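Subgroup meeting minutes
Present: P.N., E.W., G.H.
Scribe: E.W.

1. P.N. recapped why we're keeping a running log of single-chain structure predictions: easier to compare across weeks, and new members can see raw inputs and outputs side by side.
2. G.H. added today's entry (189 aa).
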Amino acid sequence: MSKGTMRKLKLQTQVSVDGFIAGPNGEMDWMTWNWSDDLNQYVTELTNPVDCILLGRVLAQGFIPAWEGQLANPETEDAASAHKMVDTPKIVFTKTLNHLEGKNVQLEKGDLVEAITQLKTTPGKDIIAYGGSNFVSNLIQHGLIDEYYLFVNPAAIGSGMPIFKERANLKLVHARAFDCGVVVLHYVP
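Output recorded in log:
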């Protein structure tokens, strides 16, 4: 299959101004949680063409029950996003779990590069990755990301968990500031 027909793997991740996705102990108290309508709309447009979500084990264990809980709550403010996250097939990369409760969840215990390379050649739409430092940095290190969407929060935290553990040359496609103070930097390798 030619490179032009392969599915794209997008990375959407929150980062601090100084390049961390979490504090040294996984702290996320620096993130902007109260997103403005323009950012919510941007995320909807980013995830519309997605029909597969890749998750690292650590994030998946919180992500899956959180979205399913939102969907189960009749007062959820963002039912459309909750439906997207629950209804879209999710592949959780793990070496340790044998089961993970959740709707449309599949565990992948094999080689990360082989599994994602294979997935990119199967028919379908875009794939999006969410995850913690180790999962995301492995995707980056192996050159698996086709598009980066770095959601830069208006906070510097001094130290923490990076996703870039070695040099990466990126080309800026678009930068956009949102009303809540988050700036999205869209890069390609």
